[in-house]
Amino acid sequence: MREPVSNLLAPDVITERDEALPPLRIGYARASAAEILRDPNVVAAIGFDGVGKGDSGDPRWISVGLDAVGASAVEVWRGNGPIRTGRDGRVRWSHDDDYGFFAIEVEESAGDIAAAAEAAYRELVACIQKGATPHVLRLWNYFDAINEGDGDEERYRRFCVGRARGMAGIWQDRYPAATAIGRRDGVRVLQVYALTARTPGLPVENPRQVNAWRYPREFGPTPPTFARGMTTPAGQLLISGTAAVVGSASRHHADVGAQLDETLANVESLIQSAGTNGAKTPGPGSLLKVYVRDANDAPLIVAKLSHAMQGADGILVLSGDICRRELLVEIDGVHT
Ligand code: 3EB
User: Fold this and answer.
1) How far is the CA of 41 from the centre of ligand 1 (A)?
2) CB of 210 closer than 6 angstroms to any ligand 1 atom
3) Are 272 and 222 in contact (CB under 8 A)?
4) How many Å lie between the centroid of ligand 1 and the Cα of residue 223?
5) Which ligand 1 atom is at minimum distance from the Cα of 322?
6) What domains are defined for the chain?
7) In this structure, which residue's CA is closest to atom 14 in ligand 1?
8) More confident site: 116 or 81
9) Is the predicted pLDDT of residue 129 greater than 70, yes or no?
10) Of the four, 48, 169, 220, 247, which is 20 to 30 A from 81 by CA?
11) Do residues 24 and 77 touch, judged by C-beta distance below 8 A?
């Protein structure tokens, strides 16, 4: 039914319109890097599984060294042109009027992941903050052998130490959403990329989980600095990497099915917490990435998820290591 004209012109409607940004159109494409990047509305494209590797001439492209389980896909972010691109030291960037993509790859020196993370964050954030889309909504972190090393020497914990140093004084408990996953390609290069916006988003926490930046000492010397989710200025919910963590403890050791159920309960709780008007569970309007420690677990996970989502088009499964050894599956994504 059509709205009466007077409602369309109501001042509160106009105010809302002023503040909101158009949604970023995020999807999975099964095409080559060259084809995807020909579209002038593409802000960024993320290839996995070696797709487009070595094809890094375009600042909008990054190739993450995680193997896909089943069909691979390229994650594509479409905005509304015109898009500007450039390089600033080690940072590659692109943005339209509303959203930005910033990526950095830092080689570890003598295997020092903390130092690499600190440098990556300093350079990335400095570049982002002087641009037209200075508000960081979400960050992705990928590096080799995340579970190597024991206790506080584990590489994930060292990464958290360096990341916190590199972002010190910037977000003060209003961190962006994030994912941190381990690659198995033996390439000691930290990859970090960000989604940014012209106006700020709203961080969302999950009542079933302790805020990650308040994790107790037993999980490492510096807690991980991320929010469980971020509502974008367009009202999209960016879901951080989510696993079978309740409170601050990992649940269901060695039971991937139960971990998946717990993870989905966490995702639904986050959606609830964000107070989105739309669907309360991941569905046809959601896009998920599933990281599995053991590729043999993928069929069970995909069966369950595709039932819940009424199809598998919005699911990309990647082989990767989760930041705690006992965690077997992690999910991140976008809920619209
Ligand atoms: C957890 O709940 C699982 O360090 O950026 C998820 C998402 C996890 C992001 C990060 C870690 C990170 O603690 C691990």
Assistant:
1) 31
2) no
3) no
4) 10
5) 14
6) 7-335 (3.30.1330.40)
7) 323
8) 116
9) yes
10) 48
11) yes
